[in-house]
Amino acid sequence: MRMFDTDQADGIRRMAPPRPVRVLAVSSGKGGVGKTNVAVNLGVSLSELGRQVVLLDADLGLANVDVLLGLQPQFNLSHVLSGERTLDEILIEGPSGLKIVPASSGIQRMSELTTAEQAAVIRAFGEMNQNIDVLLVDTAAGISGGVVNFARACQDIVLVVCDEPTSLTDAYAFIKLLHRDYGVHRFQILPNMVQDYQQGRALFSRLCRVTDRYLDVTLDLLGVVPDDEHVKKAVQRQTPVVIAYPHSKAAQAFRSLAQKLDAQPISGQSSGRLEFFVERMIQYNRAAAL
């Protein structure tokens, strides 16, 4: 009887329409702007809203999501690539039910994947047996081929910037490359570590002035995250600031960002399917190989 019930349930799941999944890249033109910290705290905040969230550490050479959370994964993406483990088997659970796909820190091989190997990693997502509402993709910084392929396969891109000339310059280069070469025309901008909303808004306006002049893109101000000493203390404790210091200004900002993202409609271009992300990654990597 139990076997019949299980088979019947599996059949119902196969008949059910695909569950909409929001696939969101968290990227930056340069390192040192707090991108991974943003991804982690957004992931936890979305989980606290009752969403099933998976955070993919897509910095395949210098992974640090697990370090920020004080986790020690036994397996990582390199084991998926070698065929030793499935994606479900390497998932680790973080705070508030957030699930993490760990990458491999310090393994040079993982930062030099061929296009076919990158596609194999992403194809593994099609075999996941997880109910997912949100897939957050924490890309590496910069505009390498791997970063670009991850970012443009996502429905939306959150581009993290800070009040440094190189941050804005590199953010513009990131936007220009994805728009000019790959047709991406919409970016959500997130000023991080700013004094207040006014400073964040000013950063956003400076970036808009340049893109409005030279590019046909749409930039949206997602929100701002203030410079908060509690963030540094939370990093030292290897705990997300939304948990370590839930009443801090930064924690409140991350919760507001999560609520705003959660309220946004899922991009119609992808039909909300996780498989669409997989298919796009395979398509882009094949094109790059050719």
From TrEMBL:
Pfam families: ParA (PF10609). Keywords: ATP-binding, Nucleotide-binding. CDD domains: FlhG-like. PANTHER family: CELLULOSE BIOSYNTHESIS PROTEIN BCSQ-RELATED (PTHR43384:SF4), SEPTUM SITE-DETERMINING PROTEIN MIND HOMOLOG, CHLOROPLASTIC-RELATED (PTHR43384). This is Antiactivator FleN. It comes from Methylocaldum szegediense. The gene is fleN.
